[in-house]
Amino acid sequence: MKRDRKKVSATDHKNNDEEAALFREAMRDVIPLPPPNQAVHRQKPPRPIVRPRVETTVTRDTLSDHLSLEIQQGDEWSYLRPGLSRQILRKLRRGHWKIQAELDLHGMTRDEARYALAAFLDECGRYGARCVSVIHGRGLSSKNREPVLKSRVGSWLAQRDDVLAFCQANPEHGGSGAVLVLLKSSA
To answer: In Å, how far from its chain's centre is CA 86?
Structure first.
C-alpha cells in the first residue's frame, strides 16, 4: 500500500518562519518565571530494590557442647537458675504456665539442633513467650537406644541467660522425650 507523501514546498517553510516571527513578537514583553527550587523529573523514578530482611539480633549460636549437666538415668530432669525460688520449678512441673510454643528436634544432627534451639529461643523472646516445650526425643532410634540430644539440650538451655528453669515434661506433653522451659518475661 502506497502512502501519500506530502511534499514540503518553499511556501510551507515561509509560513513556518512567519508563524515563529509572530510568536516571538507576541512574547516580546513576557518575563520568564523564576526557576523553581525543585528538580523536575522527566522519567519515572527507578523501582526500589527489595532487600532481604536482616535480623537486628544475631542468633546466638554460642552454645557450647563442652558443658554438661549431670543427669542420672531415671532421675527426673530439671534445672533452676541459681537464686530463684524452688516454687518456680514446682509451678512449671504442675503446668502453671500455658505452653506457648514448641520445637521438635527429632531427626536433627547435634549442630542442627543447637542452631534450631538458639533460633527458637530468640524468636520466643521477640514474641514474649514465657513457657515453651522442646522435644528432644527418647533416643529409641539412635545408637545404643540412648537419647543423644537430651543432655545436650539441657546443657544448652542452662547456658542461656533467658532460661529461668526447665523440667521434664508431663506424659501428655512428651514425658522423658521433652522438656518444658520457662523463659524470662519480656516486660
So the answer is: 34
